[in-house]
């Protein structure tokens, strides 16, 4: 018997530094609740919220900054299953279905990981494309490469 999986609607932000297009650097952050897990900011879409509204809210909650310029949107929703190690924390969902946005930090934008009462991340870095896939957690690499390669093919990066 096959059971239907449940996916949480979610947004994710591929953030380029404010130095883009002169220098192409990707924002990645180390999760505060999972050892060695670096990723892009992401979060659930609340009831009645559009993906773009959720993007702005999640950026404020996770990095303390929503001063971004949206450069592009991945045209499809991408679903993935949570790794077995984190499934207990994510009940009742088996995974997430995500809408990805490419954004650039505006000049003067400041990151504040302590802006929310329970910080999602403990540190962050801006990394070059060639370092990105060594840095991010293993189960996100395939999706990240697909999304970023799409933005590159579209001439947005």
Describe the main β-sheet briefly: 5 strands, mixed
> How many β-strands, per DSSP?
8
Query: How many structural domains are formed by the residues?
Result: 1
CATH hierarchy: architecture: Alpha-Beta Complex
Write down the CATH topology.
Answer: Nucleoside Triphosphate Pyrophosphohydrolase
Low-pLDDT ranges: none
- The number of helical elements comes to 3
The radius of gyration is 15 Å
What proportion strand? 25-35%
User: Mean of residue pLDDT?
Assistant: 92
Roughly how many Å apart are the termini? Answer: 45 Å
Shape: globular
Structural class: alpha+beta
Considering the chains and any ligands shown, give keywords for the structure.
globular, Nucleoside Triphosphate Pyrophosphohydrolase, 157 residues, five-stranded mixed sheet
Task: Explain how this protein is built.
There is one protein chain. This protein has one domain (7-153): Nucleoside Triphosphate Pyrophosphohydrolase. 21% of the residues lie in helices and 31% in strands. The chain has helices at 51-63, 129-135, 141-153; strands at 7-16, 26-31, 38-39, 42-44, 68-73, 78-81, 95-105, 121-127. It is of the alpha+beta class and 157 residues long. The protein is globular, with a radius of gyration of 15 Å. It has three helices and eight strands, in the order ββββαββββαα. The protein starts with 6 loop residues before the first strand and ends with a helix.
């Amino acid at each position: 018997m096959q059971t239907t999986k449940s996916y949480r609607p979610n947004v994710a932000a591929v953030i380029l530094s404010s130095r883009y297009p002169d220098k192409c650097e990707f924002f990645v952050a180390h999760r505060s609740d999972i050892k060695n897990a670096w990723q892009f900011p992401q979060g659930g879409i609340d009831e009645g919220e559009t993906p773009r509204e959720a993007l702005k809210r999640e950026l404020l909650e996770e990095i303390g900054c929503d001063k971004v310029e949206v450069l592009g949107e991945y045209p499809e929703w991408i679903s993935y299953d949570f790794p077995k190690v984190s499934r207990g924390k994510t009940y009742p969902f088996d995974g997430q279905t995500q809408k990805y946005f490419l954004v650039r930090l505006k000049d003067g934008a400041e990151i504040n990981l302590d802006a929310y009462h329970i910080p999602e991340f403990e540190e962050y870095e801006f990394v070059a494309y060639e370092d990105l896939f060594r840095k991010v957690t293993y189960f996100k690499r395939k999706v990240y490469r697909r999304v970023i390669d799409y933005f590159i093919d579209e001439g947005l990066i």
